[in-house]
Specification:
The protein has 337 residues and is of the alpha/beta class. It has two domains: 173 residues, D-Maltodextrin-Binding Protein, domain 2 (3-Layer(aba) Sandwich); 143 residues, Bacterial extracellular solute-binding protein, family 7 (D-Maltodextrin-Binding Protein, domain 2, 3-Layer(aba) Sandwich). The chain contains 13 helices and nine strands. The strands form two sheets. Strands 1, 2, 3, 4, 7, 8 and 9 form a seven-stranded mixed sheet that branches. The chain has a two-stranded parallel ribbon with strand order 5-6. Helix 2 links the parallel strand 1 and strand 2. Helix 2 packs antiparallel against helix 11 and helix 7 runs antiparallel to helix 12. The longest helix is centred in the C-terminal third of the chain and has 35 residues. The two termini are 22 Å apart. It comes from Halomonas korlensis. It holds the Pfam family DctP.
């Protein structure tokens, strides 16, 4: 996953000297994310505390954690990391805004299970993507976490096949890939801000939405929705990244600790996400939500309808970088075998 230490550093020598000299003085590492701080329920919170514990126990550096978007949203955190004002950040969707190739991970129905996604991200594909994004952004990927597997909910009817989605108005994030996916499945995508979602569901502006189970339960969306379909249309990864100029300014011993801390933090985040998913799934069923798991044949129908329009959009959006779609498909096939 890691490139030679001179990779990804700004090309202008003056800028390099300025950034490195400034960051090298930072004995305190700032680690920011947008999730709650509680390590027992928050995947990014858990990852941050794992990183802090390892780094502080094995180096002279301290780690200050800034959770719950206290330093800004994901796009702002990414910019801070690139500028060097915050050394380490953990983000999900914002990564594809600065490294478009990362967007291929959001192709629907790409990963049969999180285990397949982990094999891909922890293998050659994940290493190559990290190297590519380092070249483009100056941010070194220390580890991959998990922000959740996304599923559909609605208040109208049980969804077993794409036919059941016809005519449903579904809230999606204002991201073209999500719009293409829902349209491909025959529903009506309706971009709505997260803060407005509960009102939109309760007033009937939309019939349903899509999110990880933990998010659905922890935000009481199950109280506004009757049906949950565990189709797992998108596996959402977290990227734990560090400003590479700062990383390169550290001693070799400190770099080794930070690299290991990043890998462990990603694993910790995945574990907590899986834990909260299991808890949430049990809870929503106990509280009356009807949960359906599509059969392999039914999932194949979802895949056949959703993937082509999304891949077509990605190919046009990525241009010369569209090769990353095939690279991911090959890596998934190998991991699945």
């Amino acid at each position: 996953m890691f490139k030679p230490l001179d990779a990804g550093i700004p090309a202008t020598l003056g800028a390099l000297v300025l950034v490195t000299s400034t960051l090298a003085q930072a004995d305190t590492i700032r680690f920011a994310h947008v999730d709650p701080d509680d390590w027992q329920s928050s995947k990014k919170g858990a990852a941050a505390h794992m990183f802090k514990s390892v780094v502080e126990s094995e180096t002279e550096h301290s780690v200050d954690i800034y959770p719950a978007a206290s330093l800004g949203d994901e796009n702002e955190l990414i910019q801070q990391a690139m500028d060097g004002t915050t050394q380490v950040v953990m983000v999900s969707g914002a990564m594809s805004q600065i490294c478009p190739a990362a967007g291929v991970l959001d192709i629907p129905y790409m990963f049969e299970t999180p285990l397949v996604a982990w094999r891909v991200l922890d293998g050659d594909f994940g290493d190559a993507l990290a190297e590519h994004c380092l070249d483009q952004t100056g941010l070194r990927t220390l580890g991959y976490g998990e922000t959740g597997v996304r599923h559909f909910t609605n208040s109208e009817r049980e969804i077993r096949t794409p036919e059941d989605m016809s005519g449903l108005k579904l809230r999606v994030q204002d991201i073209p890939l999500y719009v293409e996916m829902v349209e491909g499945l025959g529903a009506e995508p309706t971009p709505i801000a997260w803060s407005e979602l509960p009102t939109a569901l309760s007033t009937g502006v939309v019939d349903g939405q899509e999110n990880p189970v933990g998010t659905i339960y922890n935000n009481n969306l199950h109280e506004l929705q009757d049906y949950l379909t565990l189709d797992g249309h998108i596996y959402a990864a977290d990227f734990l990244v560090i400003n590479d100029a700062y990383f390169s300014s550290l001693s070799e011993a400190d770099r080794e600790v930070i690299e290991r801390a990043g890998v462990l933090a990603g694993m910790m985040g995945r574990s907590i996400q899986q834990f909260t998913t299991a808890q949430g799934l049990k809870a929503v069923q106990e509280e009356g939500m009807q949960v359906y798991s599509p059969t392999p044949d039914e999932l194949a129908q979802f895949r056949e309808q959703a993937q082509p329009p999304v891949i077509d959009w990605l190919e046009a959006d990525l241009g010369d970088e569209a090769e990353w779609i095939q690279r991911l498909q090959d890596a998934v096939a190998e991991a699945t075998e």
